[in-house]
């Protein structure tokens, strides 16, 4: 019995040992398998991560390659244009016999007149010949409201209109730009915008902060210097540059031109008497010089622009209208400052200038020749009501054509090149309106257009004309395409 028990115990112990080894072996096997599985998964994850990294690297490289393509220079060949005009009603205007308001769009327009009118149509084409050279072409039609001929057989009042009163395109710009003649400076030759107020050449070294571009409502009215006939464009050559090409906060424009705009006033027939159809032979012998310094401060919020020009317009000419029998050389020069502050809700601007017209007036009483000094200032504000939908604008101008006008004298105008100049009448101009933009580059702008005329003559003078005004209610429309 004892032996039997001993045998059973030995068998049981052996079985337990065998079972333990088996279980341990199985556990070890399971652990090894699990470890191998984890290692395999880790390898796969590592491979996947590596593949993903490679793919990301490839993607980034592809994106960079695409960016390199996107940012590469592409030649610009662009047809563009814009137009603006009004549906207007003239609530009040001076009599048709009045000479007040010669420079405005509604000169000698009768009270009560109403119509739809285009005031400007532009059709332009920009062509990059290559990365260095660019050509610009601009056709313009800019008729005045008054298209009536001066007599039954003469030409119409405004040269932008055809003889039958229809609109006509003329060449306003036609020039060649040479980019980067040196770092930060372009050279332009041909017929081009002057730095007086009109330049807005983004993507070049020309300024984009002059008065017309900053005012932004040329479709409502010209800037004050444009209104009173400073050259907006001319035939000549110019350097347009920046002092800091990377940031473009400071720059300059220097230009020399014919002082003719697009008129062919150098044509002269020496076998005929000098007349409006046979221009002064001196015209074309003289040039006008334009200079401009512009700057942007306070993170491009503050614009400052200083402008000057000078032109001699004639040499000494014989004249029986003066006691000496000779009118000395005529010339004119302007000094102007423009300042604007651009905040997010609004932009406010001030433009002021003084201009001297030498030997521009003849005192018919004592037969002497006098100079005229023009002073003018314009203050305006524009701002946003609803972003990209509703805006507002308002402006006030004060214009004095001659600060030393003798109200007891009688003058005849002798301003060579300023045929609409009238030293006898001061003007105050006001406009205000709302700008509705239903879609980008489309504007509808109900506005009021008002000019007050005040004579400088003494009330007892034979040339005295009572104060008067022009008041027009307008729905102005403006749209742009191609740019």
Automatic annotation (TrEMBL):
Residues 1-25 form the signal peptide. It comes from the Bacteria. Keywords: Signal. This is Beta-barrel porin-2, OmpL-like. bbp2. The lineage of its organism: Bacteria, Pseudomonadati, Bacteroidota, Sphingobacteriia, Sphingobacteriales.
């Amino acid at each position: 019995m004892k032996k039997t028990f001993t045998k059973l115990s030995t068998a049981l112990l052996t079985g337990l040992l065998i079972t333990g080894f088996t279980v341990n072996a199985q556990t070890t096997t399971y652990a090894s398998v699990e470890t191998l599985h984890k290692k395999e998964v880790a390898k796969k994850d590592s491979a996947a991560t590596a593949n993903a990294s490679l793919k990301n690297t490839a993607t980034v490289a592809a994106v960079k390659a695409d960016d390199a393509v996107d940012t590469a220079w592409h030649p610009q060949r662009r047809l563009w244009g814009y137009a603006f005009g009004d549906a207007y009603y003239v609530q009040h205007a001076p009599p048709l016999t009045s000479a007040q308001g010669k420079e405005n769009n509604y000169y000698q327009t009768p009270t009560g007149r109403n119509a739809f009118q285009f005031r400007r149509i532009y059709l332009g084409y920009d062509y990059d010949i290559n990365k260095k050279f660019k050509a610009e072409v601009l056709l313009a039609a800019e008729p005045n409201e008054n298209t009536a001929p001066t007599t039954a057989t003469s030409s119409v009042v405004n040269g932008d209109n055809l003889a039958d009163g229809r609109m006509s395109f003329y060449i306003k710009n036609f020039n060649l730009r040479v980019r980067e003649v040196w770092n930060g400076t372009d050279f332009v030759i041909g017929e081009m915008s002057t730095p007086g107020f009109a330049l807005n050449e983004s993507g070049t070294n020309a300024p984009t902060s002059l008065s017309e571009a900053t005012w932004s409502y040329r479709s409502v009215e010209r800037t004050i210097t444009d209104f009173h006939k400073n050259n907006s464009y001319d035939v000549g050559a110019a350097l347009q540059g920046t002092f800091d090409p990377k940031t473009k906060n400071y720059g300059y424009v220097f230009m020399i031109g014919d002082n003719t705009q697009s008129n062919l006033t150098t044509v002269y027939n020496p076998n005929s008497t000098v007349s409006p159809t046979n221009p002064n032979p001196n015209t074309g012998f003289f040039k006008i010089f334009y200079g401009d310094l512009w700057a942007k401060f306070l993170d491009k919020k503050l614009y400052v622009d200083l402008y000057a020009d000078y032109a001699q317009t004639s040499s000494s000419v014989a004249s029986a209208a003066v006691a000496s029998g000779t009118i000395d050389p005529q010339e004119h020069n302007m000094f102007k400052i423009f300042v604007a502050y651009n905040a997010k809700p609004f932009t406010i601007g001030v433009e002021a200038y003084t201009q001297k017209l030498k030997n521009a007036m003849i005192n018919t009483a004592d037969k002497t020749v006098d100079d005229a000094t023009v002073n003018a200032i314009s203050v305006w504000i524009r701002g946003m009501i609803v972003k990209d939908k509703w805006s507002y604008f308002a402006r006030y101008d004060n214009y004095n054509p001659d600060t030393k006008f003798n109200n007891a004298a009688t003058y005849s105008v002798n301003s060579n090149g300023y045929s609409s100049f009238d030293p006898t009448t001061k003007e105050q101009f006001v406009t205000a309106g709302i700008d509705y933009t239903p879609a980008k580059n489309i504007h509808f702008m109900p506005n009021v257009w008002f000019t007050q005329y005040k004579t400088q003559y003494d009330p007892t003078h034979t040339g005295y004309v009572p104060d008067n005004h022009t008041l027009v209610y307008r729905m102005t429309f403006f749209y742009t395409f191609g740019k």
